[in-house]
Amino acid sequence: MTIAAATPSGAHASATNRLPSLDVLRGLAVAGMILVVSPGDWNKAYAPLKHAPWDGWTLADMVFPTFLFSVGLAIALSFGKLARDKRAAGAKIARRALILIALGLVLNALPYFDLPHLRLPGILQRIALCYTLATTLCLATDRMDPDAGSTVNRRALLVAMAVVLLGYWAVLAWVPVPGIGAGHLDPGGNLPSWIDRGVFTVPHLWPYGTDAAGAVVYDPEGLLSTLPATVNVLVGVLAGTALKASKSRLNLLVAAVLLMMAGLALDPVLVINKRIWTSSFALFSSGFSLAVLVVLSVLLDQGPAALPQTLSFPFRVLGGNAILAFTLSQSLSAVGGVPFIVTAQGRMTPQAWGDGLAGAAIADPYLASFACALGILSLVVLTLLPLHRRGLHVRL
C-alpha cells in the first residue's frame, strides 16, 4: 500500500491525468454504498436505498456496478504506463488483487472474527477478481499505435464482452443444476448459487442470502457471477478510452442509452437480477453508469465550472480515496452493530442509539433513519478531508 501525492484537487485531467468526473463518479458510488448500509433502522430505509429482494432493480442496485465501471475507467487512463512493462504489470496486478482479497476477508470478519462462519466472497474480493480479469485481458489483447504506443484493443474487448454475456446466458438457461434441472433462476435453484454452495460451503456465504424457507442458499458476490460483473469493468475501460480519444460525449450518451435499452429488452427473456448478475443486469447497469459519467464529464471535465465543483466536493474527497473510504464505512458499520453503549434501558448498539437520537429530533422515522446514514457519510468525508487537502491518495 502506498500514498501517492497528487496535484490539488481542482486541477483537470490534462494536468494530472486524473479526470475530475472519475473521482466524483467513484465518490458517488462510495457515498451510495454508505447510505445503503448505514440506516438508523433497516426497516425504515427509503425504497431506492434498498436492494431489490431478487428480480428487478433499484437505485441501490446501481451502486456496486458503478464502482466496477469506475475501476475500468481507471484502467483505461493508466493503460499506456501499465503496458510498457507487462511483466511488472502482472506482479502489480497480482499484488493489488491479493491485498484487496485479504482486506475484504478482514472486513468480513469484523467485529467478532468468527472464522467458522467467515464469509469468503465479498465486495472487495469481487473488485479484485474483476480488476484482474479485465486488466489481464486488456494487456493480452493490446495493439500498438504508431503515435500513442500500446493501446486498448476495443474490438477484442467487445468480442470478449459478447462471449461472456451470451455464454453466461446460455449457462443459466441450459446447464442443469444437479437434482433441480436447468433454467431455474430462483435463489436456491440457479447454477451460480449451487456452485457457491459447493465451493465456499454454506457457512461461508452471505448470511442474508436466504430462500423463502430462511435457508442460506446464495451469495450476491459469488464466483460464477463475477464473469458478467467483469463486463461492467470492460465497459468502463472502453468509456475511458473514448474519453481520452475525443472531446465529444454524444457517442457515449448514445451508447449508454443503447446499453440500458438492451438490458430492458432482454428482461422478459432473462430477468434483470443483481444477485446473480444476469447478462441483462450487466448491460442495463453498465448503461446507467455510463450515462452518469457522461453527465459528470460534461459538467466537470471540459473546463472550470465553479458551481458543480463546489457541489461535487464531498464526492471528490470520497473518490480520491475510494478504497479507504469503503474500508472506513465498513468498519463503522461493523462496530455499529455491537451493543456496547450502556443506557438506562440496557446495552444498545451505536446504530440503535443513533437512531434514537435522530428519532427524538425528527418526527418522520424514515427521515430519521436516513439522517443516521448521512451522519456516517459525513464522518467518513471529514476523516478523509485532511488527506484530500494535501492531495494524498492511498493506493494499493
TrEMBL record:
The chain crosses the membrane at residues 62-81, 93-111, 123-144, 156-177, 223-243, 250-270, 276-300, 321-346, 366-387. Residues 18-137 form the Heparan-alpha-glucosaminide N-acetyltransferase catalytic domain. Pfam families: HGSNAT_cat. Keywords: Membrane, Transmembrane, Transmembrane helix. This is Heparan-alpha-glucosaminide N-acetyltransferase catalytic domain-containing protein. It comes from Nitrospirillum viridazoti CBAmc.
